[in-house]
């Protein structure tokens, strides 16, 4: 937990040092992209348009939203600076005046795509309900913009919208009684768990589409493999679950991953309550 905070501090420190040592602000930094701090400038509007000349016809927001529309409809493989420029009716070089690279475009797309977190007004009165709502909204965002799951994570979030989602998780967890490194670790774990299960769900959906099978058909195939090959000697616990028909598909439950996520989050929240209560009892 302490390592997570330490790594974040080192990331910021290293990024700032490298940026200050660079005259053109295009040095490749920690993330391997064209300057993480430059991405932060783009995300926070510091470079929304060229400083000289007439009022521009393009904005970073407009460029990013055009790119998001392409990625939503056709996936990241279809995305390029040339394609975005064509959709907007501008030359490719025109886009580079606003967004120096495709990698930075992806940074901006993710932040704009996820939008600001809907943080409730007033104090937190039900921390569990807020966390459950937060997870549902994150899950929905991944379903609406599945390409986000294909972008490699190269560092902590630096955009205003992404940080608002981080704040939206920290707020109720803090109300639950967590603080310091514990607070950051649990919030990071929640996001990582939701993201990974969403990625698995996406991968499975794509595999079914390529195979031309439904959720029920895929589930039936998996259950058949288990029935044919799982024996009680080698897999005693698994064999018991197979005998109980736990892996037989239930069409109403889809691929079951959203249920797994909900159940897992509930148990995590139970654990947080127990952890906080134990800590208070030992004070």
From TrEMBL:
Residues 80-99 bind DNA. Residues 57-117 form the HTH tetR-type domain. It comes from the Bacteria. GO terms for biological process: negative regulation of DNA-templated transcription. One of its GO terms (molecular function) is DNA-binding transcription factor activity. Keywords: DNA-binding, Transcription, Transcription regulation. The keyword Protein transport does not apply. This is Transcriptional regulator, TetR family.
